[in-house]
Design goal:
It contains 20 helices and 21 strands. With about 650 residues, the chain is an alpha/beta fold. α8 packs parallel to α18.
Length: about 650
């Protein structure tokens, strides 16, 4: 493999993540001798670029790497994929800098996928399974990240399917959200399908156009569009109990029609229905007003007085983008966000790192592995509540309080000299109680501009001229932008879904959505949800990881039907209820379940309907394969 002459090998190695590179080199050396104790990283919690190895030792590491890679490029070494199992454990311990708990090993080996045979790849190879797959008809609702994933895996299993999508193209949230500054808040090399890595991400946390391009390219690579019906919306689903099939009423440009399916997979997400605040006079404002998720690009903000309501993830991203255009900006804040220091949040990926990802065997796998580990469960103890905690309500445990003070000090440091602002931007609720944002300083820099005001006085009403706060002050505006989130707790709305015995799913939930493993509910056979209740994560993991686990499990359920010859599969109510009781107890012990914290994680009754309170490995293990004893399987009706 020739070295790209545009890349200097020394510069490429300099740009690489050294622990990942050292680990990957085992595949070229055939041994772990170079994974020396003095080279083992000791990561800093708030600076992952600091590997804790002295500079002089890093220089030796790079020289060693250069020699091995040069040998490979010049044909003197061949990569080894099938390493002895006893070599993997020291490699994992080295790259993470910790002795990995034994109960994580099978999970991490599976995610590492060195030999291309992981648990997420369907294996429907027997004649019986192939014949059953060919007869199945599955309806997938949504062509965003999860819908694309489901389609690919159904294809791999040979299962027949149709995808319906309300929009005119694939992409889901990355198609719909086009506000300035929109970007992902998980590292791209982890926020991508495990089986479709991209070595050429331009930035570590890519923007919406780049992400949309990735998902659309994946859909094209698998030729999915021929199976997707665009601009088609599911109005209702009704289960035909006698025949064991689902009937979907579809709304198309030509009117309504009906489609039948043996099983339905909903892939509609949680954050796809914008929420506008219930403020008196909201519709009386005479100027342009829009939600950030439906950004009006026809409105020129140049030299305008702009009011932004909300300081969540969207506002956090678009406010720094528009602050330089507007004449005056007022940001109306109910509660401030916690912000994790992330200096490289807007940084480009070095060309040398891209080269290493593309050209050094297995480096991409180990680099993703490292990102996975750093995003798994290391922060969970810091956001877990201590029932015996006697400290202030601003924390839920001693560890949580220490973590809070560290992050709060960094926030205060960004507004040094502005005590008026400092008391507004440090949250009073526990760290982890609400979604924490990634911070490279641009948010607080924007709020400190002379033409920007952060308003914390509550809003009382909106008039034709602007916003009136509870102190009676009128804040005149030319444009109002709502960064007020989504109706996340209203799962599967506005679809009407009718199951066995005419049971309405939304009535069964009563505003309190629950599902077994976030995927299936009693009275609704062969109906599966991706990103359903209690599958959101707060400080660990990536939603793509959860979606891949869910799709693996759903394919396992379909395989169970194929193996047994059963027509339908329905989760037992006692299994469903016991699972949700366990989840509820788990969420009560987390910062986001604290009774003095309100957020979109909770429904109107105060129950946490969004979040998974346990470790990633627990969800991975629970979704490896369905347990037949968890379900009622029904044979096909006789003629």
């Amino acid at each position: 493999m020739p070295l790209d002459t545009a890349i200097n090998l020394d510069e490429a190695i300099e740009a690489a993540h050294l622990p990942s590179l050292m680990t990957a080199l085992v595949h070229l050396t055939g041994n772990t001798h170079h994974l020396k104790p003095e080279w083992r990283p000791a990561y800093q919690p708030m600076d992952r670029n600091d590997i804790g190895v002295p500079d002089e030792e890093q220089a030796i590491m790079r020289a060693f790497a250069k020699g091995v890679i040069t040998d490979y490029l010049e044909g003197r070494r061949e990569p080894i994929g099938d390493l002895a199992i006893e070599a993997l454990r020291p490699m994992m311990d080295f790259i993470t800098g910790v002795d990995i708990p034994s109960d994580y090993l099978d999970f991490l080996e599976d995610e590492l996928d060195l030999m291309g045979a992981n648990s997420k790849r369907p294996q429907w190879e027997t004649p019986k399974l192939k014949a059953a797959a060919a007869k199945m008809k599955v309806l997938v609702i949504g062509a965003g990240m999860s819908g694309i994933l489901a389609a690919i895996k159904l294809d791999e299993a040979g299962v027949g399917y149709t995808v319906v999508e309300k929009n005119a193209d694939v992409g889901g949230t990355w198609l719909e959200n086009t506000y300035p500054g929109c970007r992902v808040d998980s590292s791209n090399h982890f926020y991508s399908y495990s089986f479709e890595p991209n070595h050429l991400w331009p930035q570590h946390f890519s923007t919406q156009p780049v992400l949309l391009d990735y998902f659309q390219n994946v859909a094209a690579r698998y030729d999915l569009k021929k199976r997707i019906r665009f601009e088609t919306e599911v109005v209702s689903l009704a289960f035909d109990e006698a025949r064991g099939v689902w009937k979907a009423t579809l709304k198309t440009a030509k009117g309504e029609e009906t489609l039948e399916a043996d099983a339905v997979i909903t892939a509609v997400g949680q954050l796809n229905r914008p929420r506008l605040p219930d403020i008196e006079g909201r519709d009386s404002f005479k100027g342009p007003a829009f939600h950030s998720a439906r950004w009006d690009h026809g409105v020129d903000l140049t030299d305008k007085r702009v009011a932004v309501i909300g300081t969540g993830a969207s506002a956090f991203q678009f406010v720094p983008e528009i602050v330089g255009k507007v004449a005056h900006l007022e940001v109306f804040q109910r509660t401030p966000p916690w912000c994790f220091p992330t200096p490289h949040y807007h940084e480009d990926v070095a060309e040398g790192k891209k080269w290493v990802l593309e050209n050094v065997p297995y480096y991409d796998r180990w680099y993703r592995f490292w990102l996975l580990w750093m995003a798994t469960d290391g922060l969970l103890p810091a956001v877990r509540s201590d029932p015996d905690w006697k400290g202030p309500d601003t924390a839920v445990s001693e560890a949580n309080n220490a973590f809070r003070e560290m992050v709060a000090a960094m926030l205060r440091g960004q507004v040094e000299g502005r005590p008026d602002l400092a008391e507004k931007v440090v949250p009073e609720y526990p760290l982890g109680g609400k979604r924490a944002l990634l911070d490279n300083g641009v948010w607080l820099q924007a709020l400190q501009q002379p033409h920007v005001d952060l308003v914390t006085t509550p809003i009382s009403k909106i008039t034709e001229k602007g916003i009136v706060t509870s102190d009676g002050a009128l804040h005149e505006a030319d444009v109002i932008i709502y960064g007020t989130g989504f109706t996340a707790s209203k799962f599967l709305s506005p679809m009407k879904i009718t199951g066995k015995g005419g049971v309405d799913l939304h009535q069964q939930w009563g505003g309190d959505a629950r599902a077994y493993l976030g995927m299936t509910a009693p009275n609704f056979p062969n109906l599966f949800m991706i990103y359903g209740p209690n599958t959101n994560i707060v400080v660990n993991g990536s939603i793509i990881f959860f979606s891949e686990c869910s799709v693996r499990y759903i394919l396992g359920c379909l395989e169970l039907l194929a193996e047994t010859g059963a027509k339908t599969l329905e989760v037992r109510k006692d299994v469903h209820d016991a699972f949700n009781e366990k989840v509820d107890e788990g969420n009560k012990l987390m910062a986001w379940g604290s009774p003095n914290v309100t957020s979109w994680y909770k429904n109107e009754a105060g129950r946490v309907t969004q979040n998974w309170p346990f470790a990633l490995v627990d969800y991975w293990r629970a979704t490896l394969k369905p347990n037949p004893d968890d379900f009622v399987l029904k044979e096909p009706a006789t003629a």
